[in-house]
Amino acid sequence: MFFKKAQVIFKVFFSIALLIIIAVSPFLWGCSGKDNAVNGTEVTQNSEEPTSLSEGQASSDTTAPATEEVEKKNYYVSKSGEFENYSFICPDNWVLYESGQGSRVMLKNSNSVDSKMESIFIFIDDVSSNEELKDDESVISIYNLLLEGDSTVNMADEKTVNINGADAPLISYEYLSSLDTGTTSEGISCIDCFTFFRNGNYVYAIKYIGRGISAAGAQQTFSNFVSNFKLDSQVLQQKQKDKNSSVNILILGDDSGMGRPGGRVNGRTDIIIILHLNLDTCKGTAVTIPRDTWVNIPGHGENKINGAHAVGGTELTIQAIEELSGLEIDNYIITDFDGFIPLIDFLGGVTIEVGEDLHDDFSGCYLSKGVHHLDGKNALALARNRHRSGDGTTQGGAFAREREAAKIIVALLDQKSTFERIAAMPLFINYLVEYTWTDLSFIDILKLLPVLGQIKSSDIELTGIPSWPQAVGNASAVVYDEEATAELFEEIKNQ
User: Fold this and answer.
1) Does 135 score more than 50 pLDDT?
2) CB atoms inside a 10 Å sphere around CB 463
3) What is the pTM of this model?
4) I want to staple 104 with a disulfide (CB 3.0 to 4.6 A). Which of 164, 242, 246, 450 is the partner?
């Protein structure tokens, strides 16, 4: 059984990705600062689109001394000890989230609404070991290659922008997003703008992400912003990062597909994982919940928790999980047999350490103890294998299987969180939703972007609720220590 990416993850996510990858109040907070002059342009409100850097009128020349003008600007300055630090002017009414001391920065126009929104994403990566990104032409070629697989992409003519005092390529494209489509099969019109420059072993990349914004308006906003992006850390910083929040993502592996009955509506969820991510600290916890855990299913009495999905779908499953954990579930990701295999293959496989020799004819899992890079078929077999003793980190049987499933999900955080995949976000999500069902929205994905490539599998603690097999009446079930479980989730809530 299996799950996702997290997608995703996120990388998933991630990946799960993938799988980065989110809906919350912090987006209501705005940037502080008084002066938003960018290249001599002052922002004014536009009734048709969110307040944008490109939509104002030119301001008059200032007569104030240069030192006073610097103090008035709403500068952000990175504080990395690895790459040369940079600065830019944060626009008024834009929130700023940061991770990695500036290696990932997300700005979002707080005047955005559901139909019209815009963000700017900055990501700095060391590409010295990536032969595919050895020069500027290679970066452009790979970036364009990632876009070729989506038939909805409409490339604009390449232009140039001024960044760090020099000209750089501006790549823009419009596409249809598969997120937030509701009951319609048609995508929502979005636009991305991308530019970059090199400094030593590092690529400094900046990306504009807009929805419901005109191409001309997006390009002008982006050009104005990057014109103030410089490798200059000596300016007076006034803008501090806004506080990001935590997110709880429910990952479900449905036992349907491959000719089995059930599915998104009424399949049983044999893999249940709560993935808690602190988007400020880039740390998290993955909690496995045994499929046979005996709980109260709201409105249906006590039963095994994996039956909630078969009885009442995702909504009832979330209610049962929230009642058990005391956590508020922000988003869910579901996959089944038919989705899991191509999902893992699409992400390039997954590398995972197996803690014991496995030979199981039922699941088709035949792996020796050690590190393996698995394709989708073998990853699924590993996630399904419950005929095992356990490697000492957990009980055997289904308990070991559930932990193995969580290990695969977490391992996906180390897969495809590369420069190329991050650069293709959020269009990249279009591919992932082919293999999963999720309520992740466009805004949710944007919220996860700052931690993509920052959260590693080693940053995620794997645990499970304190539980053990026990008969309940005539049912073979799993019961849990209610007090210890409450303490576990209270600790997670406060992370």
Assistant:
1) yes
2) 16
3) 0.76
4) 450
CATH classification for the domain delimited by 1-18+245-495, as one of 3.40.50.620, 3.40.630.190, 2.40.128.20, 3.40.50.2300: 3.40.630.190
CB distance 489 to 318 below 8 Å: no
Token digits for 291?
A: 């499929």
Q: Is 219 in a helix, a strand, or coil? A: helix
One-letter identity of residue 371: V
Q: Which residue has the tokens 């939703």?
A: 433
Q: In whole angstroms, give the CA distance from residue 77 to residue 231.
A: 9
User: Which residue is associated with the tokens 């999980």?
Assistant: 321
> Strand 331-335 and strand 202-211: pairing?
unpaired
How far is 102 from 411, CA to CA, in rounded Å? Answer: 24
Question: What mean pLDDT is predicted for residues 116-139?
Answer: 89
Task: Note whether 1-18+245-495 and 25-226 share their fold.
Answer: no
Domain boundaries, the chain: 1-18+245-495, 25-226
Beta strands in 395-466 (DSSP E): 437-438, 460-464
How far apart are the C-alpha atoms of 195 and 329, rounded to whole Å? 36
Q: How far apart are CA 210 and CA 289, in angstroms?
A: 38
Give the sign of the dihedral formed by CA 35, CA 38, CA 44, CA 48: negative
Whole-number Å distance between alpha carbons of 31 and 94? 5
Closest-CA residue to 417 (of 387, 450, 454): 454
- 193's enclosing H/E stretch is strand 188-199
Average pLDDT over all residues of the chain: 80
Q: How far apart are CA 148 and CA 384, in angstroms?
A: 35
Give the pairing type, strands 246-254 and 331-335. Answer: parallel
Give dist(CA 236, CA 74) in Å, integer: 9
Higher-pLDDT residue of 17, 463: 463
3-state secondary structure of 271: strand
Residues 6 or more apart whose CB falls under 8 angstroms from that of 440 comprise: 21, 22, 179, 331, 333, 429
The residues facing 197 across adjacent strands are: 204
Strand-pair partners of 199 = 202
Q: What is the DSSP letter of 157?
A: P
Q: Which CATH class is domain 25-226?
A: alpha beta
Asked if residues 17 and 5 have their Cβ atoms less than 8 Å apart, the reply is yes
